[in-house]
Every structure is written in structure tokens, then in C-alpha cells.
Amino acid sequence: MTQNTTGVVGAGLMGRDIAGLLANGGFPVTLVDVDDTALESARDYHRTTLPEALESAGLDPDDPASRIAYETDLAALSGHDFVVEAVPERLDLKRDLVADLESILDAEAVIATNTSSLTPGDIAADLARPERVVLFHFANPALERDIVEISGDDASERALETATTIAEAIDRTPVRLGAEYRANCLSRLSASIKCAGTWELLAASPAEVDRGARAIGFDRGPIEFVDLIGIDVHLATIDNLAAAYGDRYAPPPEIRDRMEALVDAGDLGKKSGKGFFEWDGEEPRIPVVDDPHDVTPVVGALVNEAHRLVGDGVADGETVDDVLKRGSGGDIGPFDVEAMLGREFLRESLRDRHEETGAEVYDPVF
Question: Which domain holds residue 68?
């Protein structure tokens, strides 16, 4: 594969950063989106903001904007060898897109998916050559988090190796997962935290939950995470996960109703300036509270999910810890937490909350 054949489909927040990383790694990139406004916004971002953002993330800017072309027609990707899809998490949309790409790209071209709630197998199910589709999943924010998850039960070794080589070339650490599951590894850990956080809203306010999380060392609380990715995106994600996991990541019905009401009102979280919290640019305004909530059950849910990941063959314990550290920018993984707090203490906390709520996220598996 030569270095002049990469593409990205989707010029949203993730797509534009993936294009920026590829370009900064020396790859000329064609960024495609049907929305002219999104493309123009991405172009402006690449020219004005990206170099400083790369530098802030510890990367050396190398004039990435000069290597990015902007197109509205997928046909512009003809002849490209490695194309990343970064469109919204809708299975029908992604399947239609990869089918179109298969008709455009050469037979040996690799199609990479940045999906966080589906699998390469889901997306490639209708293709003549599903082995060309590989997971290439970035953490959010992509510039700041040194990880790309790579997997694909049906992906060819060549596709997996190509994805690994490109991840290394753009200064991201590739983590090869042992099996593909919806939400991969990092997003399953994240989903467990967010789900447990929404269940804790039955007993506490968003500020009490997140102040409790910050008090024990979380950089961000679980409710802030929901606001950060967008309440609408969070709901779409848990719906995708429900097809594989049932109610494991579902919020309580009354909290789901509350989130849907926020979405209907246009209060989507950070991107709209208001969700569970009001946002001041990049940071939420979390009220100070007198009595932060005990978030031990949220921590227990995280450790619980880590055990599920090992049991499913997604990764071993050391890799699960590494994924969370790299994906969150922190220094502690779930099995580190278990070692510090004690398995029996966490198991008992989970048992208590599972008896109280019946929520599957609290059902201990260790």
C-alpha cells in the first residue's frame, strides 16, 4: 500500500480528527461528506485549529491541512487503498455506505469502520468480500487518546495488519482485540459506567452523582459523559447495544423518558450547550453539592464489565486495563481498581444494588 490512498467518509467531529491524524502522519487524505457545510467546517478546522490541537495532544504538527482534499462524491475515493467510515451509528446507513464503497474501490482495498456500537461483521454482512472490513476504532477525543482498537472476526489478516500499520504510522497505539463484540472493549467499559450512572439518578441528582465520581478520582462523571457524547447519540448507542445485550446498558424507564424529553427540547448536552448540565464551552457547570453520592456501584459496574470482556474473549485483563487507561487518559484500569478496593467489597456492592434495582448492569459475574 502506498501513502497516497487514504480516505475518510464523514466530516463530523470524529471524521475530521481521523482525517487530520492520517494527514499529519504523512498520508494524503480525501475527506468525503454529502454535506457541503460540514466539509467547509472541517476545512476551516484543519487550517486554523488542528495544528494547535495536535500540539496540545503531544503530537508534532506537520502541515496536515496541505494533504487533505474535500469532496462530496464517493467516486472521489476510486483507487484509494484504505478508507475509514465515520458516519453516524446507524446500521442501515453504514451498510449502504460500505456497499457503495465496495462498488467504487479496488478489490484489495480495505474498508475500516470507526463504529463504537456495531461490529465489522454487522456492517459487512451484505458485501461480496466482507473480509476487507476491519474495526478501526478511535477513542473520543481522537487526538488526545493514544489508542485504536482493531478487530474483525471475518477480517483477513492482511486487512488487520494494514489497519495496525496505519495506526502506528499516525502515532496511535493499535490494540488488537481477540473477538468482535458490539461496543468493542473501550465502549463497553464506557457504556457500563454511563448506564450505572443513570441508574444512580434514581437516588441522586446529576450533580450529586458526578461530584461523587470526581471525589474518588474520575476525571469526568458518568452523567457528564452522557452530555459529552450527546444524549441523542447515547440513546441511539444503547439501542444498538440492545440487539446484542438486551437491557444490560439500558437506563431506568423514567430516566429514559427524561433523556428523550431533553432531546425533544433540543437539550442534547455539550453540543447544544445544555443537557443534564449547562455547558460553558468545553466544560460543564456542575453545581457544588453538600453530599456527593456514593458511586461505589458505578465502579463495581465498570469492574463487572471488565470481567465480562475477559470472559467473552475480547481481551485479557492486562489489555482491558491498558484499553481503559489509553482510552480515558487515566492511570488506572478496572482490574487495578479491583485490586485496590477488593473483589468481595465490589461484589457485595453490586449484589446490593442488583437486589434493589434488578438492573443487569449490577448483576455480578465475578
Answer: 6-176
Contact 208, 287 (CB under 8 A): no
Query: Does residue 194 sit in helix, strand or coil?
Result: helix
**Both 166 and 286 in a single domain?**
no
Residues constituting the chain: 366
Write out pLDDT tens, residues 257-289.
Answer: 999 999 999 999 999 999 999 999 989 999 999
Cell of 20: 487530520
HSE (side-chain half, CA atoms, 13 Å) at 32 = 19
Between 334-341 and 343-357, two packed helices, what is the crossing angle to 10 degrees?
Answer: 100
User: Number of structural domains, the chain?
Assistant: 2
* CATH number where 56 lies: 3.40.50.720
Q: Apex CA 199: angle with CA 198 and CA 200, to 5°?
A: 90
pTM: 0.94
Strand pairing category for 6-9 and 82-85: parallel
The DSSP 8-state label assigned to residue 139 in this structure reads P
